[in-house]
Request: fold
Amino acid sequence: MQIPINVPTLGREEIRAVNAVLQKGQLTSSAYHGGKNVQEFEKSATSFVKSKFAVAVNSGTAALQAALYALNIKKGDEVLLPSFTFVATANSVVSVGAKPVFVDVLKENYTIDPDDLRKKITKKSKVIIPVHLYGNVAFMDQIIEIANRHN
Reply:
């Protein structure tokens, strides 16, 4: 049985771009610097999110690990995350030595429940990973307010 949860939406332009890269046979220009398309993507990402830097990585797992390392998350720290998420969310927390703390999700949109977040946050909590899922956005105003109140 197949249960369709999320259908990718790729247009002709995206398919052409992927085909062009694959036909060229070179995804990166060196071991440490992405190819032209990756560099263009990083540049456009900095503009889009209004940041100085953007780094393309190979997976969501690598992105989460990089973010946790950048925030100096380490052993003894707690990271709050939704109980309904891809395993990589928790794995990335464990990989940096921190403890994942699972927060219940709301049944109407599968995102982190701000009320349960208030109950689970402690002095050891350093980060909240508020996974947005299936096109549903977590209640960021409440999550940010809770995070700010707990520093």
